[in-house]
Amino acid sequence: MNRPIRVLVGKPGLDGHDRGAKVIARALRDAGMEVIYTGLRLTPEQIVQAAIQEDVDVVALSILSGAHNHLLPKVVDLLKSEEVYDEVLVICGGVIPEEDIPVLKEKGIAGVFTPGTPTQVTIDFIKENLKR
Amino acid sequence: MLKDEKLQQLKKNQENWQKNKVEKGLGKFPERKDRFATGSNEEVERLYTPVDVEDFDYEADLGFPGEYPFTRGVQPTMYRGRLWTMRQYAGFATAEESNKRYKYLLDQGQTGLSVAFDLPTQIGYDSDHALSEGEVGKVGVAIDSLKDMEILFDDIPLDKVSTSMTINAPASVLLAMYIAVAEKQGVSSVDLRGTIQNDILKEYIARGTYIFPTEPSMRLITDIFEYCSEEVPNWNTISISGYHIREAGATAIQEVAFTLADGIAYVEAAIKAGLDVDRFAPRLSFFFNSHNDLLEEVAKFRAARRIWAKIMKERFGAKNPKSMQLKFHTQTGGSTLTAQQPDNNIVRVAIQTLAAVLGGTQSLHTNSKDEALALPTEESVRIALRTQQIVAHESGVAETVDPLAGSYYVESLTNKIEKEALAYIKKIDDLGGAASAIDKGFMQKEIMDSAYEYQKQIEREERIVVGMNKFRVKEEVPKGLLKVDPTVGEMQKEKLVQLKAERNNDLVLEKLNALKTAATGSENLMLYILDAVREYATLGEVCGVLREVFGEYQQNVIL
What we know:
The complex is a heterodimer. By secondary structure, chain A is of the alpha/beta class. Chain A has helices spanning 19-30, 44-53, 68-81, 101-106, 119-129; strands at residues 6-10, 34-37, 58-63, 89-94, 111-113. Chain A has a single domain, classed as Rossmann fold. A five-stranded parallel β-sheet of chain A has the order 2-1-3-4-5, with helices on both faces. The radius of gyration of chain A is 13 Å and the shape is globular. The N and C termini of chain A lie close together (9 Å). In chain B, the strands form two sheets. Chain B has a five-stranded parallel β-sheet with strand order 1-10-9-8-7. In chain B, strands 2-3-4-5-6 form a five-stranded parallel β-sheet, covered by helices on one side. Chain B starts with a helix and ends in a 9-residue tail after the last helix. At the A-B interface, helix 1 and helix 3 of A face helix 4 and helix 18 of B.
């Protein structure tokens, strides 16, 4: 049970801004986690398939394009229909307006990290909220 | 020589000053930090003197404005003749909404348009494509066909404004639509002024809205160079962009180096395609970022001009001085804005505006204070535009050409940026040029290393970002942010259904088939694309045909 935390970092949708995703991926890796970074332009289906194949504990998604309300709940729904949502912590980061955060949380995104969040805050959040 | 003797004396005096004044005082009054560095983490000395620019040769290093090597600017009188073009990047939701915003900006004294397209448009998908779902109209305006483009520029005379379009992979298609709108307004393509970004290499490096693999992408680009040199002679056929490279985390030196390396690749591709360098090079333009380190940014712009002039003259044998002039647009640094205390961003943008103007930009977009939170509101865009107007009309920096020339620090930084950027360009040459270096992940890795180092410096508080890691307050929930109408996607889909019912579908098919045949050969594709969009073939249809023939780019994922 002592294997390192495995995290899938992904960019859903068409957004090409990957600086945040890559920075967080490196920070999680430096914090001892195993990180799989998927690159750009993934559909929710592709993200969920990758999460299952890689047997990850965390799915961390980055969106700066404004498509979060559409794409993020879809990832959660697919994880649920694949019956793995109970094992996987879903978090996201990016340009997410304050008023959308409660909605996303209600839909099953456990943590939402907006610009300026220190990487340590995200690392701590993952460690404290891991589902396994 | 007297000059040498004086310099030797100065060196000696400086050493004495260092020993007797500085070092003695440091015990009592230590400096704030062990190491001082620029925004790009280049070490900064305590003092700059003639010793730091001892090989300085005015004529060779700077020359006069409007003359080789153009360090002081591309025009002889710079802003005394005409101010830079104030060009706010804008576009969201539907063509109707964006058209209203453009008219508002023109009313407020803006002097050029700059179109932001949504992601599906940038990636060549119509609004009804499965991958467009949730993205339509979000980061820019949705354009599916000539119909949308007609609405976008409704009542805006295209012979009177200059228009910049941030479009890359499908640049030929949007340019063709623009030409077609002009035709309908009775404006000849010869009279069109503007720019398409059309810079695919930096999409692979940093921005991500690529479609096709490198080779056919370069063909589309050189097709545009060739077509425009005859048909749209006042159009800037490419805007070789460092902006996004910098936003992705690059340092100022990397921004210059990687952008100019991309520039070299385009020039080589065009020459290889049989074009004469002095025919297309005068229409090449550049696009840089402006961050907070005022003097480093000014030095960066000056260095970029000097390096490019030398490359064009010495490496490519250009004869026309216009081919050697690096003309550029600037945008202030989006990644420098904070979501915390967003009003502070107005001050950051003002500093960055000064840097761009002191660096001799040809046009400028100033970011709005709320852009770390959402697309900007009309009010915040107005403040951003006013910032440019205040710098232009009140600060005094536009009254003389290149006012910081001769500053020991600025000249020494300019030299340093030139030297280190050239070392990077050499490395990229050794890797087989920009396209091949991108395939190997070289630039991506260098940029990511800089981005991660920057983040760590912020978290260790070695670098202070006011309001974010110091001088914090309890944040209030920002109010009045712009929200894009969520029904835009549905409206665009309906428009597409209507379009396909109204147009001559047989003719569309015929034109698309002709394009397909041409794409498998080696003809210039611009005419075929223009023929197709005139008949209201959609962007997705045109790009779909090209996707079939060319395939799609596969990203090399670099962490």
